[in-house]
């Protein structure tokens, strides 16, 4: 019997078993909120996505692979665009960017947020119109700013006095007048992991509201008159479920808006409230729909504007995770299954922290299912780990898998569209997996698998 077999060892699990994790009635069942919309389990037992079975995908493309449900991604873009009609929805490219996704984002009518010269290059290479891009970053180089200005990027989100000076000198040199938003730190402690909460005071992004730096920076831009200050920007963090953080942020930013109006007689026409909307990684997560988010955010902006006697600015948001996160699952193959007697069972897959660093980095929780077959075995509480030389190389901390999970099984981990491929590394010289888009019964590689030759090409020593 394996350690942590459900029922048998529950008493021994002590605090190791998370309180929220309940023994499933059926290990084959798919909880819909965790999976992209075209994923089903076929009668044969294997998962299908976009009408293609994971066994076919594994045979054609190998494992590990990120599998993108294209219809789901397009539907999420449309849902956000429809819910936030009248606002500009910027897809946050840092969550996952490649040319095919840029094209999808454009076809679905979204704007695009990039935050480095590299992301800008991908977007431009895919033909995304520069005027529909926002350019972020706390340390944009002169070369990056120059490329953005030259390309005609629609909004540059300025983040420091140094950047304002750099951009001002570029504007003077080129005779252009870049449109900018001012990134403001609103002092909201978003209820999320410390490393992805970005609006508390002690951090590198933005200008502090409370300390007065935000007003000073806005006044500087307005008084110098070289840059076109369109509005204020706030991003309070990521994987946030409680919308009250956005409400506080909107209130504080609009207070600054009113202060600028009173001091300089200018009502800034735009307001960007950033991204950060949470998604379901486990059955415990209960994200809001885009419709609910839009209702609550619009309501608070309207009422705060009324209070401060401000015209309602044009709103933008920048969701990344909530658009691409749920559209992708990672398909792995199980290599070894090891019982550590009386402690737990480790199921090792052919990827790990190099294709999904979030578990190690943020203590993130994920779910998993055996994807290539149906099982009638009892549930077994297991830990899914990778193949790297690191004991923290965990993909899924705790999940009930069928007790007959074995080498050669396909395993799917949902919700890996955001911050997995984009944060992937070559740790241990493991080549990064491909991204395979599936739609209407066909699959296509949109980012090819890295090879050992690719890695050696860089090694010119
Ligand atoms: C400025 C900005 N906007 C948008 C996002 C996207 O956040 P999310 O993917 O959580 O929606 C981020 C993420 O770090 C960000 O820094």
Chain-wise SSE layout:
Layout: E1 40-41, E2 47-49, E3 52-53, H1 54-61, E4 65-69, H2 70-83, E5 88-92, H3 99-107, E6 111-114, H4 117-125, E7 133-135, H5 142-151, E8 155-158, H6 161-174, E9 179-185, E10 207-208, H7 213-224, E11 228-233, H8 244-264, E12 270-272, H9 290-308, E13 314-317, H10 321-324, E14 328-340, E15 344-349, H11 358-362, E16 369-370, E17 379-385, E18 394-402, E19 410-414, E20 435-439, E21 442-447, H12 452-458
Parallel strand pairs: 4-20, 5-6, 5-13, 6-7, 7-8, 8-9, 9-10, 9-11, 11-12, 12-13, 15-17
Antiparallel strand pairs: 1-2, 2-3, 4-14, 14-15, 14-19, 16-19, 17-18, 20-21
Helix pairs in contact: 2-9, 5-6, 7-8, 8-9
The structure holds pyridoxal-5'-phosphate.
Brief summary of the model shown:
By secondary structure, the protein is α/β, with parallel strands linked by helices. It is built from 12 helices and 21 strands. It has helices at 54-61, 70-83, 99-107, 117-125, 142-151, 161-174, 213-224, 244-264, 290-308, 321-324, 358-362, 452-458, and strands at 40-41, 47-49, 52-53, 65-69, 88-92, 111-114, 133-135, 155-158, 179-185, 207-208, 228-233, 270-272, 314-317, 328-340, 344-349, 369-370, 379-385, 394-402, 410-414, 435-439, 442-447.
């Amino acid at each position: 019997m394996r350690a942590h077999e459900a029922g048998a060892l529950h008493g021994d699990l002590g605090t190791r078993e998370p309180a929220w994790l309940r023994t499933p009635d059926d290990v084959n069942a798919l909880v819909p909120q965790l999976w992209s919309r075209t994923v089903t389990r076929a009668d044969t037992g294997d998962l299908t996505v976009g009408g293609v079975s994971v066994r076919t995908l594994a045979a054609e493309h190998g494992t590990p692979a990120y599998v993108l449900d294209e219809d789901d991604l397009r539907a999420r873009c449309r849902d956000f665009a429809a819910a936030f009609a009248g606002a500009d929805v910027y897809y946050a490219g840092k969550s996952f960017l490649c040319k095919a996704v840029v094209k999808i984002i454009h076809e679905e009518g979204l704007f695009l947020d990039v935050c480095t010269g590299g992301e800008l290059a991908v977007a431009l290479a895919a033909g995304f119109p520069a005027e529909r891009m926002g350019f972020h970053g706390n340390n944009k180089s002169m070369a990056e700013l120059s490329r953005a200005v030259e390309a005609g990027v629609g909004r540059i989100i300025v983040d420091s006095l140094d950047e304002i000076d750099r951009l001002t000198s570029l504007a003077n040199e080129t005779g252009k007048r870049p449109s900018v938003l001012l990134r403001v730190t609103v002092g909201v402690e978003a209820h999320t992991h410390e490393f992805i909460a970005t609006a508390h005071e002690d951090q590198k992004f933005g200008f502090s509201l409370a300390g007065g730096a935000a007003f000073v920076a806005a006044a500087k831009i307005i008084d110098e008159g070289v840059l076109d200050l369109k509005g204020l920007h706030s991003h309070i963090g990521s994987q946030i479920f409680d919308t009250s953080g956005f409400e506080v942020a909107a209130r504080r930013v609009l207070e600054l808006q009113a202060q600028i109006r009173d001091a300089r007689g200018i009502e800034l026409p735009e307001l960007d409230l950033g991204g950060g909307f949470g998604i379901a990684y486990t059955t415990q997560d209960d994200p809001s729909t885009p419709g609910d988010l839009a209702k609550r955010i619009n309501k608070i902006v309207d009422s705060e504007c009324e209070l401060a006697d401000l015209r309602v600015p044009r709103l933008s948001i920048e969701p990344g995770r909530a658009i691409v996160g749920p559209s992708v699952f990672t398909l792995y193959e199980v290599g070894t299954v090891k019982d550590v007697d009386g402690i737990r069972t480790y199921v090792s897959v052919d990827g790990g922290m190099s294709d999904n660093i979030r578990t190690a980095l943020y203590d993130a929780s994920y779910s998993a299912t055996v994807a290539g077959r149906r099982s009638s075995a009892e549930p077994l509480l297991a830990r899914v780990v990778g193949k790297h030389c690191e004991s923290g190389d965990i993909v899924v901390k705790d999940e009930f898998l069928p007790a007959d999970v074995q080498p050669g099984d396909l395993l799917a981990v949902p919700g890996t569209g955001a911050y997995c491929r984009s944060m992937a590394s070559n740790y241990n010289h493991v080549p990064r997996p491909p991204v395979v888009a599936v739609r209407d019964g066909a699959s296509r590689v949109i980012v090819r698998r890295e090879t050992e030759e690719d890695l050696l090409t860089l090694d010119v020593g």
